[in-house]
Structure formats: C-alpha cells, structure tokens
Amino acid sequence: MIRTRSIELETRGKGLTEITGEVREIVRESGIRTGLCSVFVLHTSASLLITENADPSARQDVEGWFERLAPESDPHYTHVLEGPDDMPSHLRSAVTRTSETIHVDDGDLTLGTWQGLFLFEHRRHPHLRRLRVRVMGELE
Amino acid sequence: MIRTRSIELETRGKGLTEITGEVREIVRESGIRTGLCSVFVLHTSASLLITENADPSARQDVEGWFERLAPESDPHYTHVLEGPDDMPSHLRSAVTRTSETIHVDDGDLTLGTWQGLFLFEHRRHPHLRRLRVRVMGELE
Amino acid sequence: MIRTRSIELETRGKGLTEITGEVREIVRESGIRTGLCSVFVLHTSASLLITENADPSARQDVEGWFERLAPESDPHYTHVLEGPDDMPSHLRSAVTRTSETIHVDDGDLTLGTWQGLFLFEHRRHPHLRRLRVRVMGELE
Predict the structure, then answer these.
(1) According to the model, what pLDDT value does residue B38 have?
(2) ipTM of the assembly?
(3) Which residues of chain C are within 8 Å of residue A101 when distances are taken between CB atoms?
(4) If you ran DSSP here, which 8-state letter would residue A122 be given?
(5) Alpha carbon distance C41, C45 (integer Å)
(6) pLDDT tens-digit profile of A72-85?
(7) How many beta-carbon pairs under 8 angstroms link A with C?
(8) pTM: predicted TM-score of the whole model, two decimal places
C-alpha cells in the first residue's frame, strides 16, 4: 500500500522549521500501520534534518555552526550570480539530507524522545518549499 | 513482507562501533530474500555511518576528523547545559546519518568489499543506544 | 514489485558525474509507476549527492569546498598507506551519501527543477565504480 502527500511550506529565511507534526498527520491519515515514510525535499538550497527538538538553543547552535561551516563570505565561490547566500545553500544541503526515511509503527512515525524532523532553509529570503511524503507499508 | 527488530547497544563513549554483523543476522533471520533494509537510530547524539571496515587507522582518522570539525571547545555554543560534548554530538549527527538504507539480495545485506555499517557514538560517556532494523521485500 | 539494475561507471578522478539519466532510464524500464528508487554506491571513497545540475560553476564550487573541508594535506591522518587522497575520500563520503532514496511517480523519478543525482568520485585517479539501483512499488 502506498500513500503520498505534498507539503508546501513558506519559510522565513535561514533556519530550521519543525515539520514532525505535518508528516505525522500524513502518516496517520494514510491508514498504514507498519512500513516506511520517505520524505523528500524538491530543492537544492533547502534540506532535511532530524535533530534535537526540545531545546531551542540546540537548534540555534546548529544554525550557527552551518553558517560557519559554509560561510557566505568565502572568496573561493565562483557561483555567485544568485547572491552570496546561494552557493553556501547548496553546500549546507550537500552535508544534510535531501531525503529522510522514518519507520512507521502502529500508524505513527517512530522517533526517539528528542528527535524532530526539520526543514532547513538555507537562503536568506523567504521561499515556498515543496516536500513529498510517501508512506509504504501494510494497513494491518 | 515486513520484518522488524530492535538493537540495543551499550557504547563505551565516543567512537565507531561496527554493527554490520548484528544487522546481517537480522536480515538473515527475516527470511526476506530481496528488498531493502532500513536502519534507524533513535537518538540525536549518536548516528550511523557506512565507512571502511578493514583498517582500524581509517576509523581512527574518521573519529579524529569529526572531533576537529565540530570541536567541544567552540565558544559559539549556547546549548551547553548537558556538557561540552552535547552540542558537538548534535552537529556530528547532523552531517552523518540518522537512517541508512541497504539493499537485501539472496537474503543478505549487499555491501561493497570494504563497507561496514557503524554506530557512531558522539558523547564522551557510555550510553545505551537503541536502533531499529526493518527489512521490507519478498520472501522468494 | 521489485526491479534491480547495476550501473558501472568509469570515473576520471575527483569530481561529480551526473547519473540522473542512467537512473531515470532504469526506472522507466522497470515498468513501476509509483514507489521508491533506492540508489546505493558500493564504495567508501565515492559517494552520492543530489545537487544543482544547471550551472557547472555550482558543481565546481561543491568540489572545491569539499577539497578544503577534508584536505589531502592534513597532517593528522594516520591512514596514509593508500595515498594522500585516500583518507579525505572516506571523510568526504562520510558527510555525503552512500544511499539515496528518490520517489517514483508516473514511472519516472520525481526531482525538483534543478536537482540532479551525481556520483561523487573522491580519489585522484580514475576508478571503476559500481552502483545498484532498486525500484520498489506498484506497476499501476
């Protein structure tokens, strides 16, 4: 059994937005009890990340670290036509995830106590981001 | 056909622990001949990595490099309540894997000659880590 | 329904080689209309990456950035027997992907406008690289 839904999300510029709730809702509505949930982001300057969702300071530090790991100011970049935040966006996406696979059990996502699924926007300005959520498995 | 098992693993602090054998055993016991094996770690300060499993020096260098990539001593961190090794743990997890998908053929994991699957503990102290292994596919 | 094909690719040394077309062809030939396509690279010194496939300068900057992130000249490496480009290869593989999961819809890969799937060769010299492509889903 396969169920698929799209998510459209307007981001507010750089940063992590938790989407665990939206994906969980899609899984519950699918009726699938046991299987896999595959989330895929259709962009190369926004990505997915499963990380700590309890303490906002952890999220802040994740954002700050990626800012330093692939900074806007790197003079090595040649791909600069779309702005100083474009190339770092591709790099930050490259080391996080385009797709994530989460187990579905009892009709729900199986995550650890502190795990949340986030959309990671890497561009400065707000963007409309499209994601696909596919649930494959058994109804009973 | 879907088969699922949990793995509990007591780590000894920071470092890579190979779990290829444990996962392989679960795949064999599942009876599934052809399909996918999805491994998921239920934590945000330990992660998964497929890397060279022949030479221990490669593993050592991987561990050392991540230590420098996201060092404990970074004064930028604000999320420090749980100790100096907590925030780097989330960062190292962010750039490695929470889930990994490996093909199953002839009832066994399909890996390259030098590939091993590892649990990557990022905290200083021993932790009990929980992983889920799900095999989906055909019995014959 | 499960369909599997192998890809063998002779790389020309370090760099990104787009394989979207090859994988797309395998998906189309599979006859599967809706499902998941799992691509797996059987090596620890070459990896997978979904990134911008329109502007070659973006690709160039990705390659350059990984060269700086895990440089050949790092005196910390102890795993040096196979050459100065071997250990950085494992590190660059560690932070990109060994497997990638892409949705299949209407018998084709579902990718964003600018997304391409690439094999990322991390060794200096040409290598014969083996990948597996598995399509799981429904024929209608």
Answers:
(1) 98
(2) 0.97
(3) 101
(4) -
(5) 10
(6) 989 999 999 999 99
(7) 81
(8) 0.98
Query: Is residue C5 within a helix (H) or strand (E), and if so which, with residue range?
Result: strand C2-10
Query: Domain ranges in chain C?
Result: 2-138
Dig out the tokens for A96 from the structure: 């996080």
Closest CA to A19 of A120, A128, A123: A120
Beta bridge partners of B105: B108
Give the integer Cα–Cα distance in Å for B27 and B6.
12
The residue behind tokens 């189309």 is C28
Range A55-65 average pLDDT: 97
Min Cα separation C137/chain A (Å):
8
Distance from the C113 Cα atom to the nearest Cα atom in chain B, whole angstroms: 25
- Measured distance CA(C119)–CA(C133) in Å, rounded: 13
For CA atoms A36, C106, A47, A121, the dihedral sign is: negative
Q: Report residue A23: phi and psi, to 5°.
A: -70, -40
For A:58-87, CB contacts with B below 8 A are: 58, 60-62, 64-66, 68-69
E strand spans, chain A: 2-10, 15-18, 34-41, 46-52, 99-105, 108-109, 115-121, 128-138
- Give the tokens for residue A50: 């499963």
* B99: contact with C, CB 8 A cutoff: no
* Rounded CA separation B24/A16 (Å): 35
Q: Which residue is it, tokens 């996201």?
A: B70
Homologous superfamily of domain range B2-138: YjbQ-like (2.60.120.460)
